[in-house]
Amino acid sequence: MKPTKISVSPDRRVMTLVFEHGESHSIEAELLRVRSPSAEVQGHGPDQRVLVYGKRGVGIMKIHPIGNYAIRIEFDDLHNTGIFTWDYLAELGRNRAAEWRTYEAELAAAGRSRDPVRLP
């Protein structure tokens, strides 16, 4: 299920995908970043996932096609190693609200925030 259109909002904070059968999803760059399928974020097993925090306001700099099955997203925090398959993006889009709730609960449990860390 390959999207027929991928666009990024002018502020670089939201990516919208439109799929062949009419399904469309707008996914925030922050959610894409913190749920990146990269080994850096996901680890090499379910118990190795890293909680990414402080990414409110992160933007998308560039999208690179990977064959006919995925894209690689370059974020403005310089993360660029995740390969986002069409299926992964569609699933993330369908479960967007639940993913946000889970992410915010994980942050609260760890005493972390979506806000970037500010140096004095």
Care to give the gist of this entry?
The protein has about 120 residues and is α+β, with helices and mostly antiparallel strands.
CATH class: Alpha Beta
- Kindly report how far apart the N and C termini lie: 47 Å
- By CATH, the topology is NE0471 N-terminal domain-like
Q: Note the overall shape.
A: globular
Q: What is the string of SSEs from the N terminus onward?
A: EEEHHEEEHH
Strand order of the largest sheet: 1-2-3
Count of the domains: 1
Please, what is the average pLDDT?
93
What does this structure look like?
The chain is an alpha+beta fold. The chain has a single domain, classed as NE0471 N-terminal domain-like (2-Layer Sandwich). It is 28% helix and 28% strand. Strand 4 (60-66) and strand 5 (70-75) form a beta hairpin. The longest helix has 15 residues, at 96-110. It is globular and about 45 Å long. The protein starts with a strand and ends in a 10-residue tail after the last helix. 17% of the residues are buried. The model has no long low-confidence stretch (mean pLDDT 93).
